[in-house]
Write a structure and sequence with these properties.
homodimer; 427 residues; alpha+beta; SH3 type barrels; Fumarylacetoacetate hydrolase, domain 2; eight-stranded mixed beta sheet; five-stranded antiparallel beta sheet; 27% strand; globular; Fumarylacetoacetase_C_sf (chains A, B); metal-binding (chains A, B); fumarylacetoacetase (chains A, B); Fumarylacetoacetase_N (chains A, B)
Chain lengths: 427, 427
């Protein structure tokens, strides 16, 4: 799974000039997504520089067997094929996009990214959200149990729960402030009205590739073969609704009004140069149970950033404010492989195009916190913005943008693109 | 919504003799499902007596506009049409199945139910499970908090959480005993292995008909228009996995290995004669918040029964043992309409073919408990079976069958059919 091959060579340069090293989408990346032009149908494309390459349009240059999948408005069928096909496509696209001999044929199938609309790349059968960000779990736990923030199961069980598939939307979708029941501690009874503690959560998402059959767990050694790729994920959260509703069955209406994802499926192949070992566990931490034990570089050095732009900041033309910066590998107590194996360990069947969130990824530093709940200490410490405004939670007009990328000395930068959403008032 | 019309007339009798009053499927019922014959394709049919009427086969006798939906292998498209179409179909089917003049044309399209295989009737986009069975919530709460079993939110919030759509299966599917992490209180660390506390949960399911758009709540007065019909639902549960994993985000692997549903969508129209007011609330109970307030007969007098058959009982040819009997209307603190309105109250979009479980429906009597967790008092009081065996939780070979029906003096019995599953050892 970890092989670096010719397609990772940092000296490869595409004839698409905007795909130069340093862009989000050099020829070493090649993430797939679903796009449409005005009045056009949804279809698969691959990001290269500032462009999308229409995979239908170049089907004469690709394996004939793939045509059916690339004619679909979602990528589920393609992802079901698994890694060998992904890798063969990657290899072929590198040829087509670097060799000048193909330029005349391929270039007409490039469309500017600014001219298209992107869509959720798969029909999401199930969306599951995990909670593997240990610093986030600790920060949130401290607000309830200062001396004992992590529950006893945390270092044995990759904690997860099911989310809502129908409200997964692509980056750019407005965030309609949800109504709900909220009950301040001092109030006698709850009220129903717009959430006053609307928050974002910085997460990574995994797109499931090959599935497993009901009743057949996925051994840890095979888990990565079931992961087609990665995206950014914003698990928008209404903290007041959450606090009142979540006992005893977990978050529900506090979360299911919207989940935003970035449009591109960044493959594990593209991320191969950024593999790294899982963080060293503390001496007191238990060994994972045998079904979750794995070796090798199963974490990824992915850089994360969250910015906020208010209405006022946009009007004044000032740059968005950086709320946090951090690294995914330092935040995740459990790897993507462990997440997948645990999810299927009871026989639960994963399907191509399922979406799995990691949970909020905060680092152990104040500059790397993945939610306003953490940054504002549960709303007690307002954040002062350069615009002179302050925030505890999100106000109408606020736009949150998540970004991710990988960088290393001997590899070309790989970008995830963006996942953004602007808060609008209750409908 | 509550109209009784000619199609409910108890004197209506079908020319299909096995549909005589007293059967599960008289002409006043007419639930839809998806079936297939050996090597045949999946298609919609309607239950009448011991038969299925092939809706494709009689399309010349139905509205031309429906043909596209009845040619599908799932009922999502049909359910999206809403109640007017459902009612028009019901009216037409009553004509076709009672008037002898149609018999020669219609009879060849009847297929014995014993000759077909039934399927999950919809592609389930999302499956949500609620917790509106107040006696169940009280019984379970007592095992943790004897003096204060219900949490403070219970009588304000119809508590629910998202379940797994991919593992929803039709009645008859084997229950593969799940593996998982379980940690007895006295053990220092958890172990991974087959669940030792495998349980069933007696629930009703709602099939969503017309959906709502993201961001647009469903007013309580319109909620029933979004419910296409009802089924039985068994929310199989591994109590040992649940106890260890569920904090803080709710049940996950303890539930998502399988959810069984009965194959027939029993329409709200068929249930109209069995409407009844919601149970009287106690004087100390709060009024529902305004968005959840409704009047009229919003509960349904549905009879429920659970039976257990062990391997030994089957070998000896003895009848299944009745584990519980009760009435849904007495068990539900929140109505189906309140469930739907609450689910969409934050703007969450429901879609045609979504499945919503009520939660376990126990009555306030020991003879009407909806799970072994309750009957065996958390495993402390074994149940003695007539076969000489005893049970706290399910053993391999045990088959659990849920049944439901409505009966009243001035109405014909309406049956739901069965929802059954047999436990088999871990794969």
């Amino acid at each position: 799974m970890t092989d670096i091959d010719d397609t990772h060579d940092p000296s490869l340069v595409s004839w698409v000039e905007s795909a130069a090293p340093g862009s989000d989408f050099p020829v070493q990346n090649l993430p797939l997504g679903i796009f449409s032009e005005a009045k056009g149908r949804r279809r698969p494309g691959v990001a290269i520089g500032d462009y999308i390459l229409d995979l239908n349009g170049i089907s004469d240059f690709l394996d004939e067997g793939w045509r059916g999948d690339f004619a679909q408005p979602v990528l589920n069928g393609w992802l079901a094929r698994g890694h060998d096909s992904q890798r063969a496509l990657r290899k072929r696209l590198v040829e087509l996009l670097t060799d000048q001999r193909y330029r005349n044929d391929i270039e007409p199938q490039l469309i500017g990214q600014s001219e298209v609309r992107m869509h959720v790349p798969c029909l999401v059968g199930d969306y599951t959200d995990f909670y593997v960000g240990i610093h986030h779990a600790t920060n949130v736990g401290k607000q309830f149990r200062p001396d004992n923030p992590l529950l006893p199961n945390y270092k044995y069980v990759p904690i997860g729960y099911h989310g809502r598939a129908s409200s997964v939307r692509v980056s750019g979708e407005d965030v309609i402030r949800p109504n709900g029941q909220r009950k301040p501690p001092e109030a006698e009874a709850p009220e129903y009205g717009p959430s006053r503690r609307l928050d974002y959560e910085l997460e990574l998402g995994l797109w499931v590739g090959r599935g497993n059959r009901l009743g057949e767990p996925i051994p840890i050694g095979e888990a990565e073969q079931h992961i087609a790729g990665w995206c950014l994920l914003n698990d928008w959260s209404a903290r007041d609704i959450q606090a009142w509703e979540y006992q005893p069955l977990g978050p529900f209406l506090a979360k299911n009004f919207l989940t935003s994802v970035s449009p591109w499926i960044v493959t594990s192949d593209a991320l191969a140069p950024f593999r790294t070992p899982m963080p060293q566990r503390a001496a007191a931490d238990p060994e994972p149970l045998p079904y979750l034990r794995s070796e090798g570089d199963t974490a990824f050095e992915i850089q994360l950033e969250v910015t906020l732009a208010t209405d006022k900041m946009r009007q004044e033309g000032s740059a968005p404010h950086v709320l946090s910066r951090g690294t995914a590998s330092a935040a995740m107590y459990w790897s993507a492989a462990q997440i997948v194996t645990h999810h299927a360990s009871n026989g639960c069947n994963l399907q191509p195009g399922d979406l799995i969130g990691t949970g909020t990824l905060s680092t152990d530093s104040d500059s790397g916190l993945g939610s306003l709940l953490e940054i504002s200490r549960g709303g007690k410490q307002p954040i002062e913005l350069p615009s002179g405004e302050s925030r505890t939670f999100l106000e109408d007009g606020d736009e949150v943008t998540l970004r991710a990328w990988c960088e290393a000395q001997d590899a070309v930068r790989i970008g995830f693109g963006e996942c953004s959403g602007r808060v609008v008032g209750t409908a």
